[in-house]
Amino acid sequence: MSAPGRLPRWADVGLLPIVSLVAAFAVSAAIIAAAGENPWTALRLLAAGAFGSQEAVGYTLYYATNFIFTGLAVAVALHAGLFNIGCEGQAYLGGLGVGLVGLALDRHWPFWAILPTAVGAAAVFGAAWAFIPAWLQARRGSHIVITTIMFNFIASALMTYLLVNVLIKPGQQSPESRELAAAACLPGMRALLAPLGIHLSPSPLNLAFLLALAASALVWVYLWRTRWGYALRTAGKNPVAAVYAGISPSRVTITAMLISGALAGGLGLNEVMGVQHRLLLDFPGGAGFVGIAVALMGRNHPVGIILAAVLFGGLYQGGSELSFDLPHLNRDMIVVIQGLVILACGALENLFRAPLTAVLARRPQNEAE
Amino acid sequence: MNVVPVQPPGEPAGPARNEPPALELRGVDKHFGAVHANRSVSLTIAAGTVHGLVGENGAGKSTLMNIVYGYHRADAGEIRVHGRRADFRRPHDAIAAGIGMVHQHFMLVENFTVLENVVLGAEGGRWLAQGLARARAELERIARNHGLAVPLDAVVEQLPVGMQQRVEILKALYRGAEILILDEPTAVLTPQETSQLFTLLGRLREQGKTVIIVTHKLREIMAVTDRVTVMRQGAVVHETDTSATSERALAEQMVGRSVLLQVEKTPARPGGVLLAVKDLEVRDRFGVPRVRRASFELRAGEILGIAGVAGNGQTELLEALAGILTPTRGEIVLQGRNLVRGRVGPRERRRLGLAHVPEDRLRMGIIGDFTAQDNAILGQQDRPAFSRGGFLRRAAIAAACEHKLRNYDVRPPEPGRLLSAFSGGNQQKLVLAREIDGDPQVLLIGQPTRGVDIGAVEFIHRQLVALRDAGKGLLLVSVELDEILGLSDRILVMFGGEIVAELSRAEATEQKLGLLMAGVKEGAA
What we know:
Chain A has 369 residues and is an all-alpha fold.
């Protein structure tokens, strides 16, 4: 007997997020109308701004790159039953690792040697920042939600100190490092595809996007095709059964958080090596938190995360276009729309689950004898 | 095997003949999505009788009773209570119509007193003290009338389980219940508490109350009911006076084929000692000893049963043997190797030939959100058969799982199906298949047939006996005395964390075990 009141899989994965999304846009439309703009125009501008041109798509995917990394980071932790809210800080530190490698080696090593070193540094720095909360939870019982939030603030303070006092380029006012030499910069997608005869409009989209896709594939293999991934998911779903099966939940806690932090660190590749070409303040820009919504909406699956990341990338990119064109809709309004999407897809998804289940259950059922 | 019937069944117990039936269902139908839980069920229960409702898991008994109690609404059909048409939208409506329900898992606030629990939700008035005083007088009257003595000022969590059940019954009567539904009422009771409950039910019947018992224990149906209804696959398949039927006939009606209620087995031929436990002490996380200085040996080719009322240390004993809990003192020696001193964990113990079917499979033995095949490697995920170089061998895992599903008749045999979509009996069969197929020397098995259908019980028992006959050692923990008596070659009784007695199968009787389980020393018996 199958449990009553369960959504079929296709509806859970496909239909529910779309219904949530439509609801979020409907409420947004009402708010836009209340602000004195035509919601339909606004929505069209938003879509065109995000996907209407090559350049727009480039920007959208550039944002999506960050969200894929942080979304994967949140998802791996969630599969182990851990809520990692510290991706923002871990990404910040991952970027520090990338920046330090770049600053130290860009005048000595060629690009092909710097790239793997920088990828390793991003992972190690991000993982290290996640290790302390993980260790505190596994061995001391401190709740990881609390400690990772606190570590975001510590990361922010640490980076401010380093940039103001240590890494700042001598003789300037703004707290930024010197610019990295070309050997420590990721090639843009335009430059990558030009030899293949594909000509793109300029955009910040760079090699990090492909690295994010590769990371998604690796995460999938790890979680569903290795016994370590099996152990991680087991401990996340049922820690008691994990102990029964000879899996140590505290070891899984630490492993999962190390992987999570390493993935979050990947954001540093996109921002520091790919776009800014220097270390500066606040480059994660809230992507660590968007990653939570991306993971929730993507059902903690790499494919879902990529799709959700592109959606949120589109909201970011389209949103900034929107505020240029419609004077009544400032950046804050865009934040409201993004917030509504997060609310509908993350916090309120169960709002639509029950009615949707009821509607689907009412369809004629032939398999019932 | 003798729970004394409280009154010769079949005797007209109700007061008036032409009184409308207490409960009448006509064509009650209920779907849950694709599942047809109740198929046009019609049922008449005369006032002042004890009526049994039996059926396997998923036969639709609970759904039917939940409809009567207002948890669910029927898709079609009619319910009449004392002749009046009823349309319950929530339990509140059913209570108002004089229906009371005692759930298998009690709905009591553990740190409230009996009195506070009984008035909860029916406090009557703005001020608590006033309501409590009125309730106390009323309860004392009810208790006198029904011989239902309950200490009103005792805190519920300090009462024994049988007494907590009385609180639930009292609660229903206080709310004016004329029809009392009891869902698996004896699941947690000792044999002595069970007969006390039946005596109480007999008195309730004398007072004109109507009692409906939902159970799968046929012996109790025979002992206490006047009429019995059998359900199978959502429909009523049989209804009869209890005096006109037998346990075997009811079992066949439930399953739809003939079943063996008793396992056939040859006498055990015990071999060498496989597992030796010496002076074992296990404490819970509050430092309270749960197992006190337990010592015993398990030999090859025998089933050693551990009898006891739930919560007397059997769970902790099993978990300590499996390596999940760490004993505070004592030794566990598996085939000559000291597991406690060697700090051997669950994974290593499995490698040494120790398998474990946990008591509470939902909590420990399975992961409902995983597929059957992912569950079929739990604890064995590191074996070369299932993973190589860290990568899971998906094809081999699926093939091995399908093999297990077919061998153990798990339905449907689909390795890719989520485990939560299997019935309880099929889940248990999968756990059993996993642990037995791991080729253990010693099998620890807790509550092997909890929540399992009669048809599957027979199958599981045969597997366990076959394993014994193959020269393995089985340690069986069960709160079902029938199961202990039916399977064990030797029986230990646990009470308060201690092993209070060891009996050979020949000297063990239900009466003797019942007294030992209740903590009565052998001399007093």
